[in-house]
Design brief:
Elements (H helix, E strand, L loop, with lengths): L3 E5 L7 H11 L4 E6 L4 H9 L2 E6 L4 H31 L1
Parallel strand pairs: 1-2, 2-3
Length: 93
């Protein structure tokens, strides 16, 4: 399973919002970056509420995308570090 997913909002067959719901149901730790050509604030709010790490408008600025990916990877590393810390505490008991 990928740790970081980049998805568009408007896709044939399934919206990016529905994809986010399904991905989060399968893997709550997956980080998602949403890309759209439609600057609809309601969609942006919904994506962020569902846990999107970033919401980018098309045309996508490659530096902003890179920053979003770095933010997602940092978030994943912090989660992993916290889990490791908690497991270390649990083993000491």
């Amino acid at each position: 399973r990928p740790s970081v997913i980049i998805t568009d909002i408007k896709m044939p067959g399934m919206s990016g919002i529905e994809l986010m719901r399904q991905v989060k149901a399968m893997d709550g730790d997956a980080e998602i970056i949403v890309v759209t050509g439609h600057g609809d604030i309601d969609i942006a709010i919904e994506a962020l509420r569902l846990g999107a790490v970033d919401f980018l408008l098309k045309p996508v600025d490659i530096d902003r995308l890179r920053q979003g990916i770095e933010r997602a990877l940092t978030k994943l590393k912090k989660k992993k570090d916290i889990i490791g810390y908690i497991e270390g505490l649990t083993e000491k008991k």
